[in-house]
Amino acid sequence: MAPRYSVRYAVLHNYSSTDFGPWEKGSTIILDEESAEWVNRDSPGTLAEIDDSVKLVKGQPVPASALKGAAPAKKVAPKKPPEVPGQGAPGAKPGRRK
């Protein structure tokens, strides 16, 4: 039998069962991996592992960037419509050039 490790998890939505909880959304818990997998099978998306290198501030919600597997937030520029050769800028009236 493999050793059981305790891991920090963020609770992503309220949860309670006969075996675990009650936990409130936004709280953090320490649980072994096997139990966390069971909880997420019972209620998918309840727990997310917290990266060990992240220091949490007591009383503050867990930032999404602290969750393992979370992609870093990036700014996305709005998409411009493609220009069609010979038609000028989008929205321009045909036949009018400056």
Report the β-strand fraction as a percent range: 5-15%
Q: Which geometry do the CA atoms define?
A: elongated
Radius of gyration, in angstroms, nearest whole number: 24 Å
Order of strands in the sheet with the most strands? 2-1-3
Q: Biggest sheet, in brief? A: 3 strands, antiparallel
- The helix content is 10-25%
**CA-CA gap between termini:** 78 Å
Uncertain runs are none
The H-and-E topology, N to C, reads as EEHE
Oligomer: single chain
Number of helices: 1
SS-derived structural category: alpha+beta
The beta-strand count equals: 3
Quote the average pLDDT.
Answer: 79
List keywords for this structure.
alpha+beta; elongated; 98 residues; three-stranded antiparallel sheet
Write the layout of secondary structure elements.
Layout: E1 6-11, E2 28-32, H1 33-42, E3 47-49
Antiparallel strand pairs: 1-2, 1-3
